[in-house]
TrEMBL record:
Residues that coordinate or bind glycerol: 121, 171, 254, 272
Any matching Pfam family: Fe-ADH
Keyword Cell membrane assigned: no
The EC number(s) this enzyme carries: 1.1.1.6
Upper lineage: Bacteria, Bacillati, Bacillota, Bacilli, Lactobacillales
Pathway(s) this gene product operates in, as recorded in its UniProt entry: Polyol metabolism; glycerol fermentation; glycerone phosphate from glycerol (oxidative route): step 1/2
A GO cellular component annotation in the UniProt record: cytosol
Identification of the protein by name: Glycerol dehydrogenase
Molecular function (Gene Ontology), one example: glycerol dehydrogenase (NAD+) activity
Length: 372
């Protein structure tokens, strides 16, 4: 049995660290390819470019066009080839990070991922989720190494929209649920090997920190201040979840998320984490979790305003045929449903999707009656 654990070479987290990063970047060269979107450039990217130039870096800006698709990755790869850059910096959200890793792989150069939001566990991993140009899940792309640098400036993250931090909490909350099921199945993690003890411990630490500090961190984010609670959650959302999902493995929750891409409409206005939140509840049904554990997650999601019903997913009018499309997509042989401890069929997934909706609506109805 082969066990494999992976991580970035260097992880940095703290207030003001983006503008203290030259010391880390220069180890990989002076020619920088910066990938960032127009919104992030206005908020902090243009200031970061000035900082890099003052520190004698040759900066080549590639404006990210919004989708982690092969066509976008190839477009920016050509830019990097022409300028012979030595390191790419992905400054922004999860799709920027996933694209930057793919471009670094294409160019065989170093990668630094600098998230401006704590909404995803993508920064630390040696894989990317690749979408079609119109936003449908396409495939996972794997690399031979993790990013050289992952840097989170908590001052910037404290100023980001609160719903994005909550989305990251929801995504991270799937980490331990999926890792436990992968371990029970004796299945492979995202590195194609078995879990190490440390991977399981990281998954549990991720879950523990989320339940303990999430509400305090959300309050800090609303006030746009970096507190110790926010620091805990930024690390849980990014480092613990990133290491935990990659070396622990993915199972049903993320497969359900990918299943939702089979549908069109308002659901795709929700964030990745908001859809994963529902997928996590579905996985708790599929793995036979007891009522106490299921309600622990349900209550937590409701406190944070995450979707726990089909109506909140903008699927109130979805037909059973639509939900079977989601279930069938989630059970695609190339996705991670196969890493559950038991064989899961589309019919099982369909039933669990419906059961979560019914239980949540009933639970919320009972809670309102108790208040009355």
């Amino acid at each position: 049995m082969t066990q494999v654990f992976a991580s970035p070479s260097t992880y940095i987290q703290g207030p003001g660290e983006l503008f203290n990063s030259a010391q880390y970047i220069k180890k990989y060269g002076q020619k920088v390819l910066l990938l960032s979107d127009p919104t992030v450039l206005k908020i902090v990217g243009n200031q970061f470019i000035d900082y890099l130039k003052k520190n004698d870096f040759d900066v080549n800006l590639a404006t990210f066009e919004g989708e982690a698709s092969e066509s976008e990755i190839n477009r920016v790869t050509e830019i990097g080839k022409q300028s012979q850059d030595q390191i790419i910096i992905g400054l922004g959200g999860g799709k920027t990070a996933d694209s930057a890793k793919a471009i670094a792989d294409n160019l065989n150069i170093a990668a630094m991922i600098a998230p401006t939001i704590a909404s995803t566990d993508a920064p630390c991993s040696r894989l990317s989720v690749i979408y079609t140009d119109d936003g449908q899940f396409d495939h996972y792309r794997f690399y031979k190494k993790n990013p050289e640098i992952v840097l989170l400036d908590t001052k910037i993250i404290a100023g980001a929209p609160v719903h994005l931090l909550i989305s990251g909490i929801a995504d991270a909350l799937a980490t331990n649920v999926e890792a436990i099921d992968v371990r029970r199945a004796n299945a492979d993690n995202m590195l194609g090997a078995k879990q190490t003890i440390v991977a399981g411990s990281i998954g549990q630490a991720c879950e523990d920190n989320l339940f303990e500090y999430a509400e305090l961190a959300v309050a800090a984010n609303r006030a746009h201040v970096a507190t110790e609670a926010l620091n805990h959650i930024v690390e849980a959302n990014t480092l613990l979840s990133g290491l935990g999902f990659e070396s622990g493995g993915l199972a049903a929750a993320h497969a359900i998320h990918n299943g939702f891409t089979a549908l069109s409409g308002e659901i795709h206005h929700l964030t990745h984490g908001e859809k994963v939140a529902y997928g996590t509840l579905v996985e708790l049904i599929l793995n036979g979790s007891d009522q106490k554990r299921f309600e622990k997650f349900l209550k937590f999601d409701l406190k944070l305003g995450l979707p726990t019903t089909l109506a909140r997913l903008h699927l109130a009018d979805a037909s059973d045929e639509d939900l079977m499309k989601v279930a069938t997509q989630a059970c695609d042989e190339n996705d991670t449903m196969k890493y559950m401890p038991t064989d899961i069929t589309p019919e099982d997934v369909f039933a669990a999707i419906k059961a979560v909706d019914e239980y949540s609506r009933d639970f919320q109805g009972r809670s309102v009656m108790e208040l009355d």
